[in-house]
Specification:
Length: 203
Amino acid sequence: MGSSASQFPGNAEPADDFDGWEISVEGFEALDDYLLSDQSPPDCMQLSDLDGFLTGVAIGPELVRPSEWLTVVWGGEEPEFESEEMVLAIVGTILDRFNQILCDVEKGVFQPILWKNPDGTLIGDDWAVGFRTAMSLRPGAWDPMLQSKQVAMALFPIFALTASDEELAEIGVDDVESFAFELAHVIPESVIDIARFWSERRT
């Protein structure tokens, strides 16, 4: 699990054909605080794995409705909210981030929410766990990508970030920490490639 510090996505300039989705750092921080609080279900996602999960749902092969995937976010339990305003703030930020991801990949840009070590190095494993959880919602639908050797390489960083040290050793990785650091930096490129693959199949 990552440290308490996280890297929030910047707000890229929107394309001319849509307004884009802008979420303030304060909005992300309020969501982060809620997910860490006693009001949220004990097995709910945290900010980075939530972001990976939302990304996997947003760019994946099939539509998954919020009524289904929000249950996964909360760990199968009902969250507690103090007021209707809190519901709108917390769930609204989650939905806004989902839409922001869709807008960003449409523009060919993406910045994940990743934990950071005290020295500033990025941690991608929680994000990758969230993405793979999204894949598990429609496992068979991902087969066309997994069966294409060339395109499947876009998923390699995500699978490698969730692999055990023993599994990484089998493919010749000696310095797991440095390898994971490098993989975290290629997540944006992988996401764009994955999104492009499924977009082309739908057109």
